[in-house]
Input
Amino acid sequence: MTVNRKTIHLIGHAHIDPVWLWRWTEGYTEVRSTFHSVINLMKEYPEFKFTSSSSCFYEWIETIEPELLQEIKKRVEEGRWEITGAFYVEPDCNIPSGESFVRHGLYSQRLFQRLFNKKPEVAFAPDSFGHAGTLPQILNKLGIKYYVYMRPFPGKEKEYPDGTIFKWIAPDSSYVIASVIPESYGGEYQEVFNKIENIEKYPYWNKNQQEFLCFFGVCNHGGGPTRITLENIKNKQKEIKECDLKFSTLEEYFNQIIKKQKNIPILKDELQHHARGCYSVLSEIKKLNRQLEHRILMAERFATAGWLLKETKYPESVFEAVWKDLLFNQFHDILAGTSIKEAYQDARDQLGAARHRADVIINQTMQKIVKSINTQGDGNAIVVVNPLAWPVKQPVIVSEIISRGINKENGCIELVNDEKICCPVQAVQSSRPGSKKYLFIAEVPSMGYRVYFARQECEEHKEIHKLKIKPHNIPHPPKIDKNHLENDFWNIDFDCIRGGISRLYDKTNKIDVIKHLGLPIPLVDASDTWSHDVSEYRVEAGKFTLTDMMIKENGEVLASMVQEFQYNQSKIIQEIVLYKDIEDIDIYLNILWLEKYNVLKWLVETNIFNGNATYEVPYGVQIRPCNGEEEVGQQWVDLSGDIDGKPYGLSIITDSNYAYDIKNNVIRVTLLRSPAYAHHDPERYMVSNNYPIIDQGWQEMRIRLIPHTGSWKDTRVVKSAWEFNVPLIAQYEHSHPGKRGLQATLLGTEAENILISVVKKSEDGKDLIIRAYETQGKETFTNLHLTFLQLVYPIKITPYEIKTVRINLNTKEIFETNLLEEVDDGKD
Output
């Protein structure tokens, strides 16, 4: 063999979509069938090797066919069956939260260690439609060294100037070595031979590359390598003299790359774009995903509080089950909205059941803790709980029950906090005719609670209230009339002709922020469900007409204006809200959408120029050009530049959206897309066939606006997005004695740029796990306060680092760990 001899690594594979054009039960059957086929072929062809991902599949086999699992174990030990780690299923690699990616890897690596006594070092996401630039840090801290994917395709969808093998570097400087799959992730014998014969003509290899990837096998609905393909490969091995043609694995391939490839190039970027429509189509599944991600994390924090306070047991098995329900439905064709309609009946059931189990944990823990609070006081007790690990000041809505026993005819209800200070409260419209709810602004400590008391307001209390608070410190209630809304922070003028807002004036900084805000825009979208080959949506399909505008709420705590719009048979009810003593501007959208092959966007035309667009991505941010292209983002997006030479920006937070575009000074949130289910080019959509259309009917969405001076780093947008998606919880509680006081906090840190995302019991059931990440790209020294134990730990976090610590509650020792909760040895 000569020194420069080339090797083609033949990777036997069976890409299996557990859900796509079929339901999960059919996918389950195909996994079993494919794995049986591979094992049988391995008995006939001792040189044959096979690569398979998705720890979920191995769980299925363990449950249904333990004998088959034993056969797989033998092949793994022989080095012929390669398991790839990091993912429970092959997920969408943009929409899931950072913590979802952590749990994909945590549960997968633990399962592979248990079943096969090894943790894979290769992560594999061949069919995902894009990959967030923050993934290398997450993968690295899960014990992953290598990453293999296919999309975005070289040349057509992304440029790889130095080749398709590279060190993929995250913002924190950690990395994995990534390799793009050439041509396709499978193929039967003739397609495989074409790839082999043309392998050196592929234009995207690295300079002087000697190791090449070539996948083979029947894919999508499983199947894997076939006998005829294996026979023909064996014959081809004898024919080809100029290179080695070998059955191989991804790990063997990377080992040779590391050995032979000098100066592997560097890529510090996200891997986009393949199918931009995936981030807005089928809004319901995306909303369920967002809700459940937060609900499970909230349930973990509640359960941890109950465990630490010795009120409840920690339900480890329930958490693993609900996480896996979520992770399964993050499979790329489910979460992207590109599966058949029937598949989403299953997804709703699974995600809804998981959300209920999380809610049960939250409620049971809250009931246990609240019953131990001394709620004896002057009035009806309302316990407000903050599930987040930093202090929160946000609106809270409570039911009419708080007015029980109060004679409302003799005056209004007032609220008093634990410091005997009166808090404004306002009756607001509820969802039932003839009833109302009450809203007030609560301030609650980090991962803690605070008790408020509702009581009869009287003249004496009003006078006491005036004496306790100096007049110049009293925030003014919002004011509203037929076309104007304002509070201490903002002046808003409504457009009575087109709808939306025609002026948003920053009273503190004396700046006009926008030209127009809050206009719904329907656009033409003739693309398939994925929006293949579409980079932006630009052609308007028509205009929504403002049909009505009215004041909905007008009180001491909030005021709101409702605008109603009509377009064809579609209707939008938009409520714009300002609060007393809170700078946030909230928008509530109720949408009746009955359009086909249209996109619905929500427009903000700002006065911001020379701007940069920043998007939240999994455990980090991504800066992109303001070129109008459709982009994926998570809970928030920001445009920061200048207005009349002054540094200024606008952040937009959503409760369920993942797609945005920013062009120059205009931000648009993509609310809905309405193609047919799983419509893939080049198939034609025929109206006469009455195919079901996505996102028809009523939809509810919320948006929060945060105008600000400076850049997004000068705001609280990162934590505000969590507060918007994880509201305070209020519970009416009867009067009783208890061992706990009227206010308490569990833990937290004082650094504004450090966000504690996870508080849980360790997977081995021994210790406390706390995870945080640095949000603004600056090295930070802070303290982790465990108030309930009266402990303080100094913490150092590097720019954009995800930091996990493990605390032994017996010895009080703290250890830094990787994302597998293993003590970090300091190695990559």
